[in-house]
Q: What sequence folds into this?
């Protein structure tokens, strides 16, 4: 099982090294693609570029910022 399977589309995550909050856009076998900055337009996060992020650097958040 991939280390990224627990990261579903649209969930909120915390990038632990920098304390940044973002939303998951997609995953592959090795990384999670997260949108961190979208000019506070979180309802349109999928329109923004996502950063490839090591899943070990992420914590899933149980929040709803929309």
A:
């Amino acid at each position: 099982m991939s280390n990224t399977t627990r990261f579903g589309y649209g969930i909120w995550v915390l990038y632990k090294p920098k304390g940044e909050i973002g939303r998951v856009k997609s995953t592959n076998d090795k990384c999670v693609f997260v949108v961190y900055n979208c000019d506070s337009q979180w309802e349109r996060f999928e329109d923004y570029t996502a950063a490839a992020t090591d899943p070990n650097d992420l914590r899933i958040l149980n929040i709803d910022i929309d």
